[in-house]
Amino acid sequence: MNIDKKYLPLLFGIAIAIGVFIGGKLNFTDSSDRLFSTNSKKDKLNRLIDYIDYDYVDDVNTDSIVDVTVNGILENLDPHSVYIPKEDLQRVTENMKGDFVGIGVSFYTLRDSIAVIRSVEGGPSDKAGIKGGDRIIMANGDSLFGKYLKNDEIVKKLKGPIDSKVNLKVYRKGEPKLLNFTVKRSNIPIKSVDAAYMLSKDLGYIKINRFAETTYKEFKVGINKLKKLGATKMVLDLRDNPGGFLGIAEQIADEFLENDKLILFTKNKSGAIEKSYATNKGDFETGEVYVLINENSASASEIVAGALQDNDKGTIVGRRSYGKGLVQREMELGDGSAIRLTVSRYYTPTGRSIQRSYDHGVEDYYDDYYERLDSGELLDSAKILVADSLKFTTPKGKIVYGGGGIIPDVFVPLDSSMQNETLNFLYRRGYVGNFIFEELEKDRSVYKNMTKQDFIDNFKIGEDLVFAFEDFINTKTDSKITFVAYHDEVKQYLKAALGDQLYGDGAFEEIFNEMDIMIEEVMKLSEHY
């Protein structure tokens, strides 16, 4: 067959296009009988979305359908593979990054206006002169008050590019006119180390609330400070710490372990093993350490506790930890959203996996706390279920178990007084903080010349404040709560919240820990060491 030469370029182009199309379908790891097949599973999902987009009788937001589909797929994998919608990704990323760009104030909405609780020490608002109790009325000409103003809208107006400036109008009690402040936005730390202070002349205390990018640096500052104050023993409080970056947990474990000690190893789908060892950089390798854990200590917290326990370093104190032994990697989906997909399992140095079973579904998995409560495990260590098939031995002969969390060396039961569900609920929902702020508003001058240490050592909460708080709660919630049996505990919450709003810098933990039975147990252990 003869072909006119003038059509050759066209035919050549068509051939290239067909080749590109076929090449795009090839998977060079497939067998030859699959080379020209399509991925029917992916095609099925794509076709379904297209049918809904073009043929369904009503207009439908297919983006929301895709979100539901992604969530549905991930729910069939494991409890920790999760979808992060694009509207949440920035907040999640900032939380794990350890800082954000803003003006550096904590606030809450009081009677339709923004009330500053406290300026971040050394932050832009603090430097500009904004104080606790100030009301931010306007930002760059936009009003920041009104009944329907939401917190996320407020945050958007106060945030902005780094080094950009925002002009604020502020109402301050006692001032005849609104005050004008120009604040230069900068990086504001989201602290992951809540407190670092001395429990006794040689016992330091440091609390980590999560393992973010900045945690190791914060931890080093805290531990160096405590060593200068004379700490030769250390309490590492990981209670209620949900975890975070694996690499940060490794760095912190390294501070306590000698060179070449195994911290953990991970194993992926193909069976590839990666081991992580301690280096010679640790600053607390010879000191005694006590790690505090509870049923909400998870993931990276368990890595640290497991690494120390399996290397016979220090003492693990508290209750059985959460039981998360899976490692996730964040992967972008191309539209501003992302998934955190489980890519491997981690194992403690003795070889145990502490991942709880999720064979009975996500709902059952997350109801584990109530199962532990009902079984009596949180009050009696004898109720902790262990399997002999998951028994491991540390180098010094200590028996440890896998299969569902880190079991502590020294068990401390749930404190029925300080863990009172009503008090915990009121604190978590902000009622305690809001009440304290309104009390402070009546007369802040009372605390003007009082130092943080003087407040901690000498200030007493009166019975009248407990009754006032009771009235506040009953007015806000339309309930009939009474604190007759919990006056001492309520005073502790109120003083801790007051200290936090006045001083920050770990004041809450330092006050609250005074009635903490786990801290009391560590003090006894430390004295006998």
TrEMBL record:
CDD domains: cpPDZ_CPP-like, Peptidase_S41_CPP. PROSITE patterns: PDZ. SUPFAM superfamilies: ClpP/crotonase (SSF52096), PDZ domain-like (SSF50156). Residues 89-159 form the PDZ domain. InterPro entries: ClpP/crotonase-like_dom_sf, PDZ, PDZ_sf, Peptidase_S41A, Tail-specific_protease. Keywords: Hydrolase, Membrane, Protease, Serine protease, Transmembrane, Transmembrane helix. SMART domains: PDZ, TSPc. The keyword Glycoprotein does not apply. The chain crosses the membrane at residues 7-28. The keyword Lipid metabolism does not apply. Belongs to the peptidase S41A family. This is S41 family peptidase.
